[in-house]
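Researcher: Let's try something more involved. This one mixes different molecule types, so please make sure each is placed in the same coordinate frame as the others.
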Amino acid sequence: MSAEVKENQAIESGTERRLNMIEAINDALDIMLERDPDVIVMGEDVGYFGGVFRCTAGLQEKHGKTRVFDTPISECGIIGVAVGMGAYGLRPVPEIQFADYIYPGLDQLISEAARLRYRSATEYIAPMTVRSPFGGGIFGGQTHSQSPEAIFTHVSGLKTVIPSTPYDAKGLLISCIEDNDPVIFFEPKRIYNGPFSGYYDKPAEPWKRHPQSVVPEGYYKIPLGKARTVTEGDAMTVLTYGAMVHVVESVCREKGIEAEILDLRTLVPIDIEAIEASVERTGKCLIVHEATRTSGFGAELSALVTERCFYHLEAPVERVTGFDTPYPHSLEWAYFPGPVRIGEAIDKLLKD
Amino acid sequence: MADRPDADREAGANKPTLRLHVPEPKFRPGDTVDFSHIKVSEPGAQPRPDEACDAKETAPLCHDLIRVLGDDNKAHGPWDPKLDPDTLRTMLGHFALVRAFDERMFRGQRQGKTSFYMKCTGEEATSVAAAMALASDDMVFPSYRQQGVLIVRGYDLVEMINQIYSNKGDKLKGRQLPIMYSSREHSFFSISGNLATQTPQAVGWAMASAMKGDSRIAATWVGEGSTAEGDFHSACTFATVYNAPVILNVINNQWAISSFSGFAGAERTTFAARALGYGLAGLRVDGNDALAVYAAQRWAANRARANAGPTLIEYFTYRAEGHSTSDDPTGYRSAQEREEWPLGDPVMRLKNHLIALGEWDEDRQAEMDREAAERVKAATKEAEKNGTLGHGMHQPFRTMFEDVFEELPWHLKEQAEQATRERLIKFHGGRPQ
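Model: All components are placed in one shared frame. Result:
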């Protein structure tokens, strides 16, 4: 049974409980804290208060202060102690309050967590899931809006996972926590409370009308390294992830384009089979991410598609990304790769 | 004092002009060395507070120097750990083995058997005596000069040399720079090579141990130069915030490659005094006095075991040799420093103490040294059967790609196939063998 079918069955047979992404993440953490006494949740403001985005609300009260607790404002320290806890045998799930704040912890992630299994020849491992809200579109300015995923995909030994729906967020997060490798789990904060069409000036959509807001009770997993086909189509393949999945979907719907949208979900290891199969069929490939363009993950995707599907391509690979600038506060919607930028790229690909 | 009253707000009014201070060590190559500015405290004169005391009671000890062994080769004062002669002889035996090992491995590097080595000459007590004061299952997060811990814990010398040679017996599969050991069996964490990263990790391990109601504590070692890293600050903060059962050992051996301790702040205060700002217990200890090292480490261990809190210990010592085989200290410091070092040599001091007790003599010492050298020589010969670095390929090709992740993902499988292909082209003209 494919993961896809399993998922659909879970949705159909579920109790029709509808959650937003924050609730789904909270649910996953709650379940894992319950199931595995070695799981601990820590981070700035995650304890009593329940996190600035409420992802850990109620968890301290339920699981106790030594399982869910606040930390000093020190990302280096948070990741560093998580490495030590992993060496002890725990499965820490640290939260970095904003992805933009993760940089002081980079040495501990890149040189320590990511290398520990290799350098100790499996004597020690760092099984941690670093959760962090990322991405813009919330008027967060240049320190609360970045999408630094490519920094992590460039590091051997790290997995990078980005959900785009409540259902996936829960199942992927459970997989990450059970994974024995360190995982960066970026949560697209623009879609915590609802999918996003890309039109910031239109009323926000809540999750409850989206089919993937049906989140079954209890434990389930979505395998890492597997993309999700969001829509099937022949016009082109769109490779995307996070909040942009919804923007692309809405643009395609609006333009009446039958594109095959792949939500990559895991960036490392990437689901190359799904990418190849789709691009070989459609012959066209659009890559969409919110992060800055140069050396962004889109560059890797473009290279993979070009190297592996070149003779199936009917047009050059197109990339739609954020601009190579810091995320500006007042001009954030000019920065954001919204419907106009995506629409232009689609038109160009269809013309070629 | 300089003054800048409000009336003088116009630009350029400040007098005198500001000056940047760039630290400079007292002695450079060729200089005559005079260490009389170093305050050497009276052995036995330092009070020993209760192990569960309020951290601030240790404040005077952060600016003192805890010493036990006097010039009379006798043990003095409340910090005397009162070890029996057998234990002292065991300690001396570890010293002999560490020194013999360092000598032989240094020579091995010069003979081209490996790429790199780091001796711990002059600071043996800070790892040997400290490790002896811990329980064998207490978790240690070492820096790169704590071979003494492995020797104390009975790690097989052949295993150590296999790692140094990156040969086919190296259980780290030739992946790590020589001396970056790892031994879970000996509760010895994998050495990083990036500096001070082990310090918050030790705190995290200790936090986990406390969460689980375990009995084991953690200890970490870091050089005085590396205390400048943010990781060390994070470690101190987390240690104090969660009252983690951890010991933070700062080895102040005066030199970080060519940078003297002034570049980590030693001109202004002691490293032990860092403890005060965090509310950690702090001790400043003569690192060349094996009994003082043992006593301080034991004090901190007991404190941690009693949930009474973490301790930061500065061991004041001297790096008697270069930073590593890649370093030439004659280029930046006076050769006289080693001879003039006011705290002497840790091995000599312990030996002389045992002799003064009537429990040892020079002949037995010579025999101990000879036996240590023989043991290292035999281990070296054994390890060389597994090969030396650069002479042949010691690890199967695929091991390069293993353990990056628990499972080999598709992109690493492809790269492993490429590596195999390259090897076929290089050695067999592209024909599969």
